[in-house]
Amino acid sequence: MEKKYPHFTLRTLLSFLLVFLLHRSTEAQQICSIPGATPPTIRENNAVGAVVTTITTEEGVTIIIASNPADSFGLNGNDLTAVKVLDYETKTSFTIDLLCTKGDQFLTLIVVVLIENVNDNPPVFAESQYTLNVDELSPVGKSVGAIVATDADKDRLYYSLVPDTEGFRLQENSPNILVQHVLDYDAATSVTLILSAQDTPTSTPPSFTATATIHVNIMDIDNRPPWFQPCTETIVDMSKICLSSGYTGTVNLTEQVVGALPLLPGPVHAIDGDKGLNVAIMYRFPTGSESDIFQINQNTGDITMSKAADIAGPLTLTVLALQTSNGDQFATTTVTIVVVKKSVNPPQFEKMEYEGFISADAGVDSMVLESKASNRPLKVQAKDTDYADGINPDVRYEVQGSTEFSITPQGFILMTKNVMPGTVSMNLHAIDSSNAESTTASLTVEVMPEGALGAPGGYGPGDMAALGASLAVLLVISMVVIGLLVFRIQKGKTDWRKLSEANIFRSSLGKGPGELKDGVQYTNEGFQNDGDTSSVGSKGPEEMDGKRSIGNGVTSRAVEENVMKVSAPLYSNLLLDTSSLAGSDKADSEKEVKPILTKERRVEEGYKSVWFKEDIDPNAKEEVVIIPDNGEREGDDDDDDEEEEGFREEEEEYDNSSPQTPKVLFSDADMDDGRGVRFEDSEKEKFQTSDL
């Protein structure tokens, strides 16, 4: 039977054993157990001896540990304790077998202990520094790279990038770095960023952060043509360009320059606009050299002459610069060569050193003076002996080494900004623009404190005040003189009115009963100084000092200048009385003049008359002269004759030079003072009047 059923017997035995164990286990459950329906837990990084759980037992039950992984747990009575510091990152759970016995009862109690994770580990980057590369002009949003950190606690990490204004940013909820705006190699060749990873969304503890340094290199690309140097960089829209003004040079007519031509602002030179690439540049004349006169070195750009220029004037060359590796990147510029006639002598300043002075308070655009004691502006000049007068119209001036002063084309120095007192040194440069020949002189300007200038020879505030006072005095004097002139003019008008009255009187003397007598000339100055303010030209004897007197205070000079001369036929008119004159035809203005011819003397006050000592033959051609009377009685005739003889001697010179025509002469003496009339013929015969 055994051979026939070997497995049956073994199975039967195992079945009985299992039934026995289950029966014994059912009985043992009643002697020990674990409280609760869930496995016990303990936080990692626990304290040694921390209680994991307490086993529930019947009275008299003994508990022992049958299985203890790594000897991490122990029993303290019915308490299951951790005898080591547990680490979640090392092991997340433990299974412990406990054997409970009570008499002949026993029970194996399996306890599973779970380790609770704690945030006790910071994030970690694989490296502390990273290097990334990105091309300039990359599109916005392009990924540069992703730098990921790890956390042993398996926590979610939160990333940040600083600074966030250098052209890069992070993709949301990711360590992926993106291009934020267009990058320019010339603006920045590299950027350094700090990437942070934090295991909590906030910094509330416990929180751990890890950082990494990221170097982003901006790579230059071939996007610009060559740039001729020097040039001015500028941005047009999104592109950067460099503007060059070209080159200039000068050569003499019919002369060939050996070697490279000297040019301004320097030799022809171009660089790759992409400085990071710095591709080699070559040079050409795109349309050939100018009349085969000039050649250019393909590698250096130096321009040389193959022969002399035979025509004066500017020659313009076009120079092409292009990359050796990419002919599509090229640029052009112009080179202007001025062919001039050779100058024998360059311009030269009159002095090699100049000194000027200016006041600190002179103000902008004030001229520098040549000395402290003069207001003469300082003028510098460069002479060119190639010109006869030394003045080269092509010379221009400039100031070097100072921005406080400038120079005019005429050579005057101007202050361009306010300068503190002290000394300013600079150089003066004179350039012949026709051939680029130049000369240099030094200038030292002493800026004087306020009020320091204005010494003798200058015009200071005091001088200007004195000048103003002088002008004021001159103005007052001028006004006084003008007033006097106006007064004299007004008085002259009155005198001319009186002369008009005298003309009326002359007309009355020149007329007969009905006809006009010619040849009447007279003066009426003898009727002045006797109280008649309406008479003309009064002059008394006392006003004739310095003249030899004839008669009663009348000089021969006065007789010559102030007598009225008439021809002999007028004698009859002199004998006319007042009634005969009054009967003649006169104008209204003439009627205001009273006749003064009479045969009898009148002594009434204010009455003027001409009286005669004896009758006069009208037909005799004799000269009548009015002479002053001494006012004495008729018995004084002898004295009058003596005075008259003196008068005759004074008149001889006059008579010899004038025609010997009988004349009537009226003296300018006052008739009220006893003055009379004298007649003279060609033989100088005279008739003397006397007092009545």
Automatic annotation (TrEMBL):
Q: Which GO terms describe its cellular component?
A: adherens junction; catenin complex
Q: SMART domains recorded for this chain?
A: CA (SM00112)
Cellular compartment(s): Membrane
Note the SUPFAM superfamilies from the entry: Cadherin-like
Q: What residue range is the signal peptide? A: 1-28
Q: What is the lineage of its organism?
A: Eukaryota, Metazoa, Chordata, Craniata, Vertebrata
Where the record annotates domain Cadherin, the positions are 34-125, 126-228, 245-349
Would the keyword Disulfide bond turn up in this protein's UniProt record? no
The record's listing under PANTHER family reads:
CADHERIN-23, CADHERIN-RELATED FAMILY MEMBER 5 ISOFORM X1
GO MF term list: beta-catenin binding; cadherin binding; calcium ion binding
Q: Name one Pfam family in it.
A: Cadherin
Q: Which CDD domains match?
A: Cadherin_repeat
Primary location group:
membrane
Region of interest (Disordered), residue spans? 524-550, 622-692
This protein's UniProt keywords: Calcium, Membrane, Repeat, Signal, Transmembrane, Transmembrane helix
Q: Give yes or no: UniProt keyword Transmembrane helix.
A: yes
For this protein, the parts annotated as crossing the membrane are 464-487
Biased composition of type Polar residues is found at 524-537
Q: What residue spans carry the Acidic residues bias annotation?
A: 634-655
This protein is called Cadherin domain-containing protein
Compositional bias segments (type: Basic and acidic residues)? 672-692
The biological processes this protein is annotated with in GO are: adherens junction organization; calcium-dependent cell-cell adhesion via plasma membrane cell adhesion molecules; cell migration; cell morphogenesis; cell-cell adhesion mediated by cadherin; cell-cell junction assembly; homophilic cell adhesion via plasma membrane adhesion molecules
